[in-house]
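Researcher: For the annotation table, I need structure tokens for Chitooligosaccharide deacetylase. Please keep the output clean. Sequence:
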Amino acid sequence: MTADPGLYSYIPYKDRPKIVWPGGKKLALWVAPNIEFYELSPPQNPQRKSWPRPEPDVVNYAYRDFGNRVGHWRLMEAMDEFGVRGSVSLSVAMCQHHPEIIAACQERNWEFFSHGIYNTRYTYGMDEAQERAVVEDSIRTVKTATGQDIKGYLAPALTHTMSTMDIIADCGLSYTCDLFHDDQPLPVKVKNGRLISMPYSLEVNDHYAYNVFGFSPEQYTDLLKRHFDTLLEEGADSGTVMCVPLHAYLVGRAHRIDPFRKALEYFASHSDDVWLTTAAEISDFYLANYYDEFDAHIRAHGKGGTA
């Protein structure tokens, strides 16, 4: 039995090379709206059911469909208000199902990265060729619809395999959101190319706040602020990253959007110290300025390097 996924090396949080974000900023903050499509009757994966109730599960389908009908539009307006761009975690089939939403994101100069084809088609059980086909389809679909070359990947419904990192690096992507192990980007061990782990916190994900922890909208805003304050303080020693993963069918509800606006307002009020950016921009900056230094530090002080 494998005791460790072997995807990254261990180095303590303290005494790493110092990261300074553009403009001398201490914290890089990115917001990740998950723009997803859930199929009413998807092909069955033998390892995981798509819906908790017998199909067709109209209740859960319609509950999530709210995000595409109402929530995304409400969330986009709130983010516009505070000059926050999105890095879209995209079910790429949305390019065909709801191109209006994709166009609205493009108008705002938002980034797209792949979250698989549908959030009801899981990677569990796929062989390498099948998973590679999903990644290649994502690259083609987003390029055709938006002109963008995707740089990142979050496996559909977080169902990555032991081959996922090698496949996405070999396909030319530069970051993965499927590792939740750190508050700074770090090199990931892959067979070909260079890949970094982009901090994507499940702890401040609105899905966990509302559906798992049972938070009120005000408690969620307080959680975001406290998470932000700590990372900003620690970023004075070495730059940190905060991601705010969102689902418009949750945070975009009428009674939740105003408390979330207060969190956005709080983030924007610290613009002297905070880089409000996208995951692709963080990845580009880290690869150009810190990847090699961190790799050398890991080889000297950690357990293994990226080779």
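Researcher: And a one-line annotation?
Model: The longest strand covers residues 27-35.
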